[in-house]
Amino acid sequence: MENIKTVCIVLNYNDAPTAIKLVRKIQKYKAFDKIIIVDNASTDDSREKLGMLAGTNTMFLRSKRNGGYGSGNNIGLKHAYEVLHAKYAVIANPDIDFCDEDVIYMSRIMDANSDLAVISPMMKEKGGFGTAPAWPLRDWFHELCAAGPLMRRLFKKLLNYPASYYKKTLYNNYDKKNLVYVDAVPGAFLMVRLDIINALGGYDEKMFLYGEENLLAYKIKNAGARSAVITDRFYIHNCSSSIKKLFSSLHNRQKLREISTLYYFKKYLRINPIEYACAVIFFKITALETLIGEKILKIKK
């Protein structure tokens, strides 16, 4: 049986050129024993284009339906664990850039720290508003603020770890200077320990897009496992370029965020009816905000 330690999962939906660019680059990486391309039931010619990349270290899987980010990645995670018997999986959005050496380093830290379920380098964004490299699991009110386009920018410092938090020293068996525990990390690029993630059931497939990180972090924390970021390693995220190709309207993207957040509130945080009603009102206001914002942008163009 082939000895497979680390795999990379690349999820695609109607954006083959971006996925192809990433896969061709990482096919040369020594860190990965296998690359799993998952096509999330694309409606264009992605299946044919991506299928051509399959070979010695690359396999192509296709979902029968587009169930969203979590559902698509679960296909790759399940195959990596149950079929390939891999130890770790890197989930990589097509619109990111990262180094081979960083993945090797991540796996070494995972080897030395058996309580880690998730690890990620710090994220640097191109063309965005500076998404935090990690954040704490918040109560419903602060999470609601984080779900609003304006609120999460105005109160960014109150919703995330302060910059000083990433300067803390955390002891671990591989390196003592560059690792800090966190609750949630961005879903664009992370390494997961497959036995823990499999035991937790992977991503919640009832959430289509946005907020999957919170659900996974909630499961991990409740199970007594850990997540961490490496403070002196970085990857580049091209500001959700793949998502914006599919959902060009800010209003539509915000609607997806609303659905996901309300689901998280109801199933995981179990907020009361009054809190839920306040959240619904808040999202009606943000919906109006995004519509006005889009009209202003159209006028300026």
TrEMBL record:
InterPro entries: Glyco_trans_2-like, Nucleotide-diphossugar_trans. It comes from the Bacteria. Pfam families: Glycos_transf_2. Gene3D superfamilies: Spore Coat Polysaccharide Biosynthesis Protein SpsA, Chain A. Residues 9-128 form the Glycosyltransferase 2-like domain. PANTHER family: GLYCOSYL TRANSFERASE (PTHR43179:SF10), RHAMNOSYLTRANSFERASE WBBL (PTHR43179). This is Glycosyltransferase 2-like domain-containing protein.
